[in-house]
Amino acid sequence: MTAAKTAPLRRYPVLIGGEWRDLADRPQIASWNPATGEPLYSVPDCSAADVDEAVAAAHSAFLGEDWQSAAPVARGAIVRAMADVVLENAELLAETEARDSGKVIAETRRFTAVCADYLRAFGEMADKITGDTFTPPQKGVTAFTRRVPVGVVAAIVPWNNPLWLLALKLGPAIAAGNAIVIKPSEIAAAPVIEFLRKVTEKVALPKGLINLVTGHGAPCGEALSSHPLVAKIAFTGGPETARHIVRNSAANLADVSLELGGKSPALVFDDANLDNAVASIVSGVFLGSAGQSCVASSRALVQRGIYPEFVRRITAAAAQLRVGDPMDAGAQLGPLATAAQLNRIETAVAQAVQRGGRLLLGGKRPEIAGGGWYYQPTILEIGSHDDALVQTEMFGPVLAILPFGDEAEAVALANASRFGLAAGIFTTNVGRVHRLTTRLRAGIQYVNCYRMGAPMAPIGGFGDSGKGREAGIDAVRDYTKTVTVWIDTNV
Ligand code: NAD
Q: Strands, E, within 140-247: which ranges?
């Protein structure tokens, strides 16, 4: 047995009412290093009573005079200061995330910088939340709207990309004047906790404005999403969990935004720049997070004229990828985040092959020092678009390829999915670009590129990919409610 297995696990505290608390007497949930399969640390499985205390603390901070009277520009300064905290601790945060989630360090470094960019942008938006004025028909009467914060926000985030997905919620929530209770995933909570520790050391915050609880979906997540004082739930995760959240929100009638999964199509037409299409799709489905990305380009639909050449090129490109230890700066994809995820993908690929799918690349666990939950970049040619491998989010390094004949068939196949998060369009025909971007049911569409993003650009999907949008000024407005004020000037 190794020292790591025998030494007591580092136990992370939670943040409630401005205090870091070591909840040693709660059941502890171990988090595992996907590169070795060894435990890294533990977090408490918070009870409904812990959640209640955190929400009550947030509610009282929200109603506190300090926060109610804080100017928008002062709220923005807090969010910008959090961006500085990310940059000042960039290497710690990037390493923590790579070790915890299995995403490669090159990717977590990139996303740490992205996270700071988004927080800074949200900070800048704080004083740009405006209302409207009206001239109503009543004589001498004027009316205007004002946008006020919703109150307590519950931010529930998944294990893939935890810091950035938190920034997408924390930034607008605080910029718009709310208080927040954060629940990271029990699978990779460390980046969120390390970040919040640095925030509380560096940034002066009203007591209880930002709270952190940890735990499983039940009881912790359930208690949070159904809490009567929660006014908005900002959730990123899977569609089945989202359905629980929506049911829970019947208890508090909170606003709910859902950023869920995808099975995003990449449409490659005969006239496409093939090298660009191949590089973009490889990047979208394999690089950085081994396909554990909501926008993964995991469904390649390729026009028949170029199909054999596309298959040859993408198989050759993916075969060159370096699978390795997430802490290795040269690794292009790391392990899957959990052993369960690895088993699920292995089974799904084996079953697809039994149904007649043709394995073009991968389909095995590579030999990598340290053990770990690695899976090779895998490409399958699938005969039917209805096949489970084409319709199910794999959340792993698995690409399904299918041919299509004409544009109409490409659109029909692309839209034949419960999901609708992202789509890639690879063509040099500008008219086709305009036709497709109006017909594809996908909230994020990349033309001759993939995996683009910027703080002003909304993110979100259709159907099982969720509802509501994150990022951009409209998303900040979603953390407010409109109040209409009538003034009778005759009095
Ligand atoms: P998940 O749904 O299992 O968990 C997400 C969070 O919800 C975790 O914090 C979890 O503890 C919590 N949770 C679980 N059950 C709950 C319940 N009953 N009530 C309240 N909270 C509960 O998702 P995951 O496996 O952590 O993440 C992967 C999923 O997230 C994938 O489907 C992926 O596509 C999606 N995702 C979407 C986006 C996006 O922006 N659209 C981004 C990243 C990930």
A: 141-149, 152-156, 179-183, 210-212, 230-236
Domain that holds residue 230: 10-260+467-484
Query: What is the whole-number distance in angstroms between the Cα of residue 285 and the centre of ligand 1?
Result: 19
Whether residue 365 sits in one domain with residue 292: yes
Domain presence at residue 2: no
Reduced to 3 states (helix: H, G, I; strand: E, B; else coil), residue 121 is: helix
Whether the Cβ atoms of residue 339 and residue 305 lie closer than 8 Å to each other: no
On whether both 307 and 240 belong to a single domain, the answer is no
- Look at the chain and report how many structural domains it folds into: 2
Query: Would the pTM of this model clear 0.85, i.e. be above it?
Result: yes
Residue nearest to atom 15 of ligand 1 (CA): 217
In this structure, what are the phi and psi dihedrals at residue 221, rounded to the nearest 5 degrees? -65, -40
Tens digit of each residue's pLDDT (9 = 90 or more) over 302-321: 999 999 999 999 999 999 99
Say yes or no: 204 and 272 in one domain: no
Ligand 1 centroid, distance to 393 Cα (angstroms): 13
* Residues 292 and 184 occupy one common structural domain: no
Ligand 1 proximal residues by C-beta, below 6 Å: 156-161, 165, 183, 185-186, 217-218, 221-222, 225, 236-238, 241, 244-245, 259-262, 294, 393, 395, 421, 459, 466
Q: What is the pLDDT of residues 233-277, one digit of tens each?
A: 999 999 999 999 999 999 999 999 999 999 999 999 999 999 999
What is the CB-side half-sphere exposure of residue 356 using CA atoms within 13 A?
6
Is residue 378 in a domain?
Answer: yes
Using the mean position of ligand 1's atoms as its centre, give its distance from the Cα of residue 157 in Å.
Answer: 6
Pocket test for ligand 1, best of 46, 222, 236 (most atoms within 8 A of CB): 236
* pLDDT tens digits, 68-83: 999 999 999 999 999 9
